[in-house]
Structure to design on (1245 residues):
């Protein structure tokens, strides 16, 4: 069923919009339509003041309330979805998260509060009561303590809770296919890969978009115009996570929060990096394919994929091909992906190198702020060791130190056959320090980045004793 | 009775906040014909404007006009204390991002597109950006401010030990969540209704009147509420409000302006970065005998409030310490950066930063525990040892009491041992523990603004409107004022509606600043309520057939005879009877702080009405590989007097501490070599998130702390707790030092992971050097 109208449900009201640009951000639409409870704090996806809740599919296939930054969402992406804004939360009386915030002094100036309420609303139904529920919301007044108290004092969801009941009643249908046009902008949302490829052939000028957490910045900051957008959100072949005995294949359009939930415990280095990857509102939208497609030199996940020897599968009308992640990044924001190709999936092998008996693998990320910051340096290390503690395979992958995510291949080679000891680590520290020629920028100096390249590997050594090894 | 006072009443707008119903300036319903502004920002830090052509902007569909300096009918100046700040430049831009013109459009998008078409030819000039270089070139705003006691130069020469040093500290963006917004609505009679996010509606009113050359009576400025201020909306709102006023005057249509985050961060002033040079003399026991300091504040391109910021730094630098011979000189440096402005603490944090650095260095140099050196140097006893360098006695000195109480509640001595134990067994991670005291003088340092007004209006159904001169930016001022009024009038809080702050209700107000909002406005509100009560009492007495109206009690919506609670009449009935008997049911209130003065020439006086005292213990754990750290625990004992509202006061303490921690550890302002700000969004400017807040964060309000002569015994709370974050900085330094065997390492501010790792490396290399020299 192909929809040509932009229909969505906000706070229970089913709306059918026409003559409105599909690249208007959801935040702009909400405020222009008088829903001024949702605030703009940055239009950058960083402050959370614009957080709204969308009914979305959870990792277990069931429906859940998901917090998202409305400032980064093109309106077209919300077609066929159910949204809740701060105006819709109180029904008859304050919602428990609202009541606790009032009682415990969780608001001062109140400007960030609607965003906090929406994050807390989503986490209330997830059962999350810790800081992670609001890690993507900035508050400049309270110091967060009353907000933390409010979160921690929330009771489990009542059996009679109307919102819980509403989730259970949500239709199981997936997102409908969409071909919408408004204000000279076209927004396609096909459901099959073949349709995507056909559309790309018809519209060479089209831009592919999934979660739009990067493209959203172009919309809000640079006011970039996109005459044709092709959304990958509803494409069946790009969804799903297939864990097998020897490898895991992740659909390119799977949101990171779903990867985090589904693959928890499978790849420690991935778990760790996803923990530090942006914040929940962004992870609920951002995809692995998007993180690769934008090819940012400071993307957090490429080092993980480099250190785990992942492969990338691309599709075009000519067929599919699979390339090693190590070959994928070709230059500053450039990849092997050809204009007529779509990233379909990413495959991460689980097998150890021949002769190895255990694997140590971990990720590190250093930013000016620990949480929700762009990396100064991100690193993932993988070492396969044999029964004599000798290094059989080494992967030292970094972000933030070169024009592309990159491996320290000379060091990796030098480590092969060496014992995994402090002496070995000391021996490579100096070459590691000089392995790359990073830049100085507003986040850090080149010198600090060089130090981190070496120090993080040493930190990995000292912490590896307590790391869980996989075999 | 104390009904309302001292209770943890939730913020008066809390329900509005959590439901999205609380309205901020730019949330109001758009008006028919409303126009929108977009700035044309200078792409140079310093340049001559050779030519400006706005014609191409006008050709863009939806562009109505453009506002430039030529459109100003009054005086093109919005300088707050010195007339050196052009609203719109005539021939020269002085900082990157300065608004050179504003394009007026039917839509914001039309104005934005129009702004792209404005053609300006610049002749770039050499910008002065570096603080040290500007000092060397004698680029200053105004003269030197000095406070001195004794003869520090002689005392330094005679000191057992001397040290000399220089420190710099970065500034800070306010990062209020709500960016600047103003609406200006012209009326056919030549008057203007203005809605602005301003901490100083009176000054915004004055700026607009000045710019438009109309009487102030023709400008009403209303502040509904602000989504955070922190000083960033004390003078800075005037820029946007005045630009919108010109556009409104020119077009006759309502005009709105709202800055996006990037515009806000590039166009408006921040906390001053400081450079300080100091000398300190001290005994082997760590008694500080002499201090001599020069403070230089980066004022940016115009004066704004900078001389007052420096005055605050000069007056509060002593913190909790008695120094017999003390001299401090402060100056405002002129650079080609955005004009720096008020920010919570207003220069005081920068001053105290220097003193804490000095005390810490003295302790580490002597190998003495810093907490002991701090304690030894406290203001104490009576006479000169309990008197500040500017000659004010430290009355009601609670420093030692708080210190002792905090050391106990924080289990300080035991944890010192635990930290030492941890550090002995962990080569790659080190902990640091630090305790810091705060003494903070309360009042505007100039005498005039220490006044306030209120207006109370009672209607015949017994409902009441409360107006006062203070603005609400989240600090809970309105909540406290409602509590004061309910107590003073003896009625339920629910009777009141607090009105948006507006210059047509209370005129000639002071900025809501200097932590003084509750102190000043609270007294004015009480004065207004007392005035009404004085009029209602005879009415009630007559209704009760009493002859002594002065013995009537107003409480719980009743008026009754003292000692005879049954002999009573309802407040509603008294109001109706007062009206029937033609007694006025509205009253103004007024207050001025008594007994404060300061002579700028001599640097002596009694500038502060009283002092706030506090102390904090912070414990950190630092990673030796990266310089990243975790704040493990914070303990605070804070003196708010007799709290008007513990929930609000606690929120102020926790929030200020966190903001101070952000300033000192992660919030870093960075400019390109040409003066372009590189940090213009939360993606690049990092303020603390919930994850940086320690799991253990214990705040104790000092008990038995009532203060004489203040509103219901309470004390100001807004600014002082920001300075408690020095305990984090000193704990970080202690941890860095623990990586080596050295006695002292410099630590840059903010102490980013990079700066901390640098300090660790310094500590390690100093240790290896000293080992070699043995």
């Amino acid at each position: 069923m192909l929809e040509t109208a932009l229909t969505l449900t906000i706070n229970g009201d089913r709306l059918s919009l026409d003559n409105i640009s599909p690249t208007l951000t959801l935040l702009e639409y909400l405020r222009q339509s008088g829903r001024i409870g949702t605030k703009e704090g940055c239009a950058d996806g960083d402050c959370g003041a614009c957080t709204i809740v969308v009914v979305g599919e959870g990792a277990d296939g069931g429906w859940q309330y998901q917090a998202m930054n409305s400032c980064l969402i093109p309106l077209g992406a919300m077609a066929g979805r159910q949204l809740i804004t701060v105006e819709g939360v109180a029904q008859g009386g304050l919602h428990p998260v609202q009541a606790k915030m009032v009682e415990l002094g969780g608001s001062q100036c109140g400007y960030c509060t609607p965003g906090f309420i929406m994050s807390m609303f989503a986490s209330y139904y997830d059962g999350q009561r810790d800081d992670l529920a609001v890690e993507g919301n900035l508050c400049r007044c309270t110091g967060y303590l009353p907000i933390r108290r409010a979160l921690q004092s929330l009771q489990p969801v009542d059996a009679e809770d109307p919102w819980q009941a509403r989730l259970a009643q949500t239709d199981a249908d997936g997102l409908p296919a969409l071909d919408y046009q408004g204000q000279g902008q076209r927004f396609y949302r096909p459901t099959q890969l073949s349709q995507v490829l056909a559309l790309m052939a018809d519209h060479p000028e089209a831009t592919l978009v999934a979660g739009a957490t990067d493209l959203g910045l172009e919309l809000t900051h640079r006011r970039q115009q996109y005459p044709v957008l092709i959304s990958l959100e509803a494409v069946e072949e790009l969804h799903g996570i297939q864990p097998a005995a020897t490898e895991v294949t992740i659909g390119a359009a799977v949101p990171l929060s779903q990867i985090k939930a589904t693959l928890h415990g499978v790849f420690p280095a991935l778990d760790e990096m996803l923990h530090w990857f942006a914040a929940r509102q962004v992870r609920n939208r951002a995809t692995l394919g998007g993180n690769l497609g934008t090819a940012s030199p400071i993307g957090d996940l490429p080092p993980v994929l480099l250190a785990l020897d992942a492969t990338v599968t691309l599709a075009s009308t000519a067929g599919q091909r699979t390339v090693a992640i190590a070959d994928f990044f070709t230059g500053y924001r450039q990849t092997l992906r050809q204009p007529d190709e779509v990233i379909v999936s990413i495959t991460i092998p689980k097998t150890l190198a021949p002769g190895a008996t255990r694997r140590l693998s971990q990720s590190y990320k250093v930013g000016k702020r620990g949480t929700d910051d762009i990396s100064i340096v991100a690193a993932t290390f993988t070492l396969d060791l044999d029964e004599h503690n000798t290094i059989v395979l080494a992967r030292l992958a970094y972000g933030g130190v070169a024009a592309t995510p990159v491996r320290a291949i000379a060091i990796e080679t030098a480590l092969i056959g060496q014992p995994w000891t402090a002496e070995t680590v000391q021996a490579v520290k100096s070459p590691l320090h000089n392995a790359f020629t990073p830049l100085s920028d507003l986040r850090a100096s080149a010198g600090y980045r060089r130090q981190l390249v070496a120090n993080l590997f040493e930190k990995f050594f000292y912490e590896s004793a307590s790391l869980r090894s996989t075999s | 009775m104390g009904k309302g006072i001292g209770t943890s009443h939730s913020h008066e707008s809390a329900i509005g906040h959590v439901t999205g119903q609380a309205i901020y300036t730019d949330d109001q319903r758009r008006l028919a014909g409303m126009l929108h502004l977009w700035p044309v920002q200078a792409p140079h830090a310093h340049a001559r404007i050779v030519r400006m052509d706005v014609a191409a902007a006008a050709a863009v569909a939806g562009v109505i006009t453009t506002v430039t300096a030529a459109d100003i009918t009054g005086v093109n100046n919005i300088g707050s204390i010195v007339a050196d700040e052009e609203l719109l430049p005539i021939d020269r831009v002085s900082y990157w991002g300065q608004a050179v013109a504003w394009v007026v459009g039917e839509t914001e998008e039309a104005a934005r597109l129009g702004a792209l078409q404005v053609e300006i030819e610049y002749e770039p000039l050499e910008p002065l950006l570096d603080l040290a270089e500007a000092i060397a070139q004698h680029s200053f705003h105004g003269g030197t401010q000095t406070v001195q006691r004794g003869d520090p130069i002689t005392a330094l020469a005679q000191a057992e030990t001397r040290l000399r040093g220089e420190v710099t500290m970065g500034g800070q963006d306010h990062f209020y969540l709500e960016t600047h917004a103003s609406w200006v609505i012209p009326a056919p009679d030549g008057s203007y209704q203005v809605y602005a996010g301003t901490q100083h509606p009176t000054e915004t009113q004055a700026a607009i009147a000045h710019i438009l050359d109309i009487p102030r009576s023709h400008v009403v400025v209303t502040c509904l509420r602000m989504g955070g201020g922190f000083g960033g909306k004390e003078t800075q709102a005037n820029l946007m409000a005045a630009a919108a006023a010109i556009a409104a005057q020119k077009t006759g249509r309502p005009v709105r302006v709202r800055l996006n985050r990037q515009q806000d961060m590039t166009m408006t002033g921040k906390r001053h970065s400081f450079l300080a040079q100091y000398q300190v003399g001290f005994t082997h026991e760590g008694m500080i005998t002499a201090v001599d300091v020069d403070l230089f504040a980066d004022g940016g391109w115009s004066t704004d409030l900078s001389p007052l910021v420096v005055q605050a730094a000069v007056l509060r630098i002593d913190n909790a310490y008695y120094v017999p011979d003390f001299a401090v000189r402060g100056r405002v440096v002129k650079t080609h950066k955005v004009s720096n402005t008020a920010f919570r603490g207003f220069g005081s944090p920068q001053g105290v930063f220097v003193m804490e650095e000095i005390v810490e260095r003295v302790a580490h140099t002597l190998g003495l525990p810093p907490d002991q050196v701090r304690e030894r140097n406290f203001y104490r006893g009576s006479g000169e040892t309990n008197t500040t360098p500017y000659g004010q006695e430290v009355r009601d000195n609670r420093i030692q009491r708080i210190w002792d109480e905090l050391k106990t509640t924080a289990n300080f001595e035991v944890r010192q041992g635990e930290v030492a134990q941890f550090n002995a067994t962990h080569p790659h991670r080190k902990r640091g523990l630090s305790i810091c005291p705060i003494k903070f003088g309360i009042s505007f340092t100039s005498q005039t603004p220490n006044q306030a007004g209120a207006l109370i209006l009672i209607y015949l159904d017994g409902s009441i409107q409360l107006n006062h001169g203070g603005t609400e930016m989240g600090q809970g001022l309105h909540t406290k004022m409602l509590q004061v009024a309910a107590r003073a009038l003896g009625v339920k809080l629910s009777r009141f509606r607090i009105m948006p702050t507006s210059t047509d209700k209370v005129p000639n107000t002071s900025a809501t600043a200097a932590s003084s909002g509750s102190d000043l406005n609270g007294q004015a509100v009480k004065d207004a309520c007392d005035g009404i009560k004085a009029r209602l009492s005879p009415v009630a007495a007559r209704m009760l057939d009493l002859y002594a109206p002065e013995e009537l009690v107003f409480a719980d919506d009743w008026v009754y005879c003292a000692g005879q609670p049954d002999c009573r009449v309802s407040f509603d009935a008294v109001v109706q009877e007062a009206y029937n008997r033609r007694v006025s049911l509205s009253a103004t209130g007024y207050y001025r702080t008594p007994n404060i003065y300061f002579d700028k020439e001599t640097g002596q006086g009694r500038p502060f009405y009283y002092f706030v005292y506090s102390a904090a213990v912070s414990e950190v754990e630092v990673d030796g590989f990266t310089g990243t750290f975790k704040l493990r625990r914070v303990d605070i004992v804070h003196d708010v007097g007799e709290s008007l509202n513990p929930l609000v006061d606690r929120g102020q303490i926790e929030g200020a501490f966190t903001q101070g921690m952000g300033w000192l550890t992660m919030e870093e302002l960075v400019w390109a070599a040409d003066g372009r700000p590189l940090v213009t969004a939360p993606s690049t400017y990092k303020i603390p998130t919930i994850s940086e807040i320690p799991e253990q964060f214990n705040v104790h309000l000092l008990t038995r702390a009532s203060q004489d002569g203040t509103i219901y015994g309470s004390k100001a709370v807004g600014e002082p707790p920001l300075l408690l974050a020095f305990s984090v900085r000193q704990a970080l330094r202690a941890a860095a030092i623990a990586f080596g065997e050295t006695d002292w390492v410099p630590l840059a501010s903010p102490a980013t992971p990079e700066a901390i790792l640098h300090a660790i490396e310094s500590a390690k290399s100093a240790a290896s050097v000293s080992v070699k020299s043995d």
